[in-house]
Amino acid sequence: MQKPLTSIEAFNEFISEHKLVVIHIMRDNCSVCHAVLPQIAGIVEDFPGVPLGLVNQSELEEIAGELSIFTVPVDLIFFNGKEMHRQGRFIDMQQFEHQLTLMYQSMT
């Protein structure tokens, strides 16, 4: 499940509603951001019940201050409302999947 998050309130509500979530932060004119998204979405699909939140920083500039984001893309894993893993700019998909697997297994 992918969900666009268009406000800080929607972002905060999204991470508080779910035990484990992945957030992908991107910008409109970022080719790397758009190339990484299908890869992240493919990883998240393998984890039933884990939603993927999409934040377009071009439309929600204040997310940068809220999450201390200095570059895009940024992919985050939140567990119980807390940021547990972050990768920015160069995303190591194997490491990202490994971290997500560890947190997913701790839920069961």
From TrEMBL:
Domain annotation Thioredoxin: ranges: 8-86
Gene3D superfamilies assigned to the protein according to its UniProt record, in alphabetical order: Glutaredoxin
Pfam families recorded: Thioredoxin (PF00085)
Name of the protein in question: Thiol reductase thioredoxin
